[in-house]
Design goal:
- The protein is α/β, with parallel strands linked by helices and 412 residues long.
- The chain has two domains: 160 residues, Lyase, Ornithine Decarboxylase, Chain A, domain 1, CATH 2.40.37; 243 residues, Alanine racemase (TIM Barrel, Alpha-Beta Barrel).
- 29% of the residues lie in helices and 25% in strands.
- The chain has twelve helices and 21 strands.
- α5 crosses α6.
- The protein is globular and about 70 Å long.
- The structure holds ligand LLP.
- Ligand LLP binds next to α10 and α11.
Length: 412
């Protein structure tokens, strides 16, 4: 990943810090994040979009990494923040995000969450269903306020990605199909307190070609002319050497080429990248706990797994891995497995690890997205710390959970 290198002894360095030093300081498992890499990615998105479409804003889909340090960092970079639900909204506000730049999502927003968003002054609420409209009308009638909204459209596009993260197809639980979207738009145009600003589309995640994005823009263009088009997120990350996602620039070209043809020239374009903003900036550190050799594959078992990285179990995502303290590239093909009570708890199949031994430090790169977000306490696991590295310095931004934390909510 960006910022990673190897020193003269072949040991892995991230953000100018040898990762072995981080394992000493913070223990394992640990999620290390290259702060400069996230900032660089944020600028690449924001500047790249502005260069192609000046009236625009890049917004971070915070579900990919909802910790206050990450919110703060992206707010500092001037990005808007996409929040799904009251929890992410609260975290974003606590981190100092500008409420006007918040885009509030959810297919099941409660009255409480909508009220929270309205009271916080969230700039944009995305209408997913007709109930959102009813609820907001009621809330705003009481507060006598106004609220900017977008309508989320389901354009019936099925990108080539895992079914669980495909959202734009007919039959998706998200958004409104084109006829219903038109109906919602008509209703909102007659609303006194809901200010319809435009439409939103998001067709899925970990998308590895640009075509579905271009088709999504074509689909929203069919709905007519609006002031705002939010084109969602979804660009894939490069998890393994075999993955070839489009670059940020290729992705932005695909969107804006269609936009230049089909959208009003003075419209505002928003995008909501999540995964591709943070995935490659993160690296997980583990220790080898056991090495099992037999007839089949060599099992290298580590001190983490599906409690700190659910991508594998939920979406069969594969990761690369390396012994962090020895030169990479060669070695015996190993099955890198977690410590949890499921066979699916496997981070890598056939990854070459050089002479793996108990106590070795293992680095799994490209773990910045949806790992912290989906981390859990399965088998009584304590969630790992998040450590920021930058210019040779490091600091924890989330501490490791303790056994006391595990019991904190239990009542006697
Ligand atoms: N906007 C909306 C409305 C979304 O629902 C999402 C992701 C994004 C933007 C950001 O998409 P991204 O750029 O991250 O692909 N839990 C799954 C990922 C689910 C993504 C859901 N929505 C995972 O861990 O892979």
């Amino acid at each position: 990943p960006p910022g990673t290198g190897v020193d003269h002894s072949g040991a892995l360095v991230l953000g100018g810090v040898p990762v072995a030093e981080l394992a000493e300081a913070y223990g394992t498992p640990a999620l290390v994040v290259d702060e400069a890499a996230i900032r660089a990615r944020a600028r690449r998105y924001a500047d790249g979009l502005a260069a192609r479409w000046p009236n625009s804003r890049a917004t971070f889909a915070s579900k990919a990494f909802p910790c206050t340090a990450v919110y703060r960092l992206l707010a500092e970079e001037g990005l808007g923040i996409d929040v799904a639900g009251g929890g992410e909204l609260t975290l974003a506000l606590a981190a100092g995000a500008d409420p006007a730049g918040l885009v509030v999502h959810g297919n099941a927003k409660t009255d409480e969450e909508l009220r929270l968003a309205v009271e916080a002054g969230a700039g944009t609420i995305v209408i997913d269903n007709f109930d959102d409209i009813d609820k907001l009308e009621r809330i705003l009638a009481a507060t006598r306020g106004e609220q900017g909204v977008l309508v989320r459209v389901t354009p019936d596009i099925r990108p080539d990605t895992h079914e669980a993260v495909s959202t734009g197809q007919n039959g998706s639980k998200f958004g409104l199909l084109l006829p219903q979207a038109r109906e919602a738009i008509a209703r909102l145009r007659g609303s006194e307190r809901l200010r319809l600003e435009g439409v939103h589309v998001h067709v899925g995640s970990q998308i590895l070609d640009t075509e579905p994005f271009a088709r999504a823009v074509e689909a929203v263009a069919e709905l007519g002319e609006f002031a705002v088009y939010d084109l969602g997120g979804g660009l894939g990350a490069r998890y393994t050497y075999a993955d070839r996602p489009p670059t940020v620039e290729e992705y932005l070209d695909a969107l804006t080429d269609v936009a230049k043809r089909l959208l009003p020239a003075d419209a505002r374009i928003l995008i909501e990248p999540g995964r591709s903003m943070v995935a490659e900036a993160g690296l997980s550190l583990y220790r080898v706990v056991s090495v099992k050799r037999g007839d089949g594959p060599t099992f290298v078992a580590i001190d983490g797994g599906m409690a700190d990285n659910l991508e594998v179990s939920l979406y069969q995502q594969r990761f690369e891995a390396a012994v962090a303290t020895r030169p990479t590239g060669q070695g015996e093909p190993c099955r890198l497995v977690g410590r949890h009570c499921e066979s699916g708890d496997t981070l890598s199949i056939g990854v070459p690890l050089q002479d793996p031994r108990v106590g070795d430090l293992i680095a799994v790169p490209v773990t910045g997205a949806y790992t912290y977000a989906l981390s859990n306490n399965y088998n009584g696991a304590r969630r790992p710390p998040v450590v920021f590295v930058r210019d040779g310095a490091h600091r924890a931004v989330v501490r490791r959970e303790t056994y006391d934390d595990l019991m904190r909510r239990d009542l006697p």
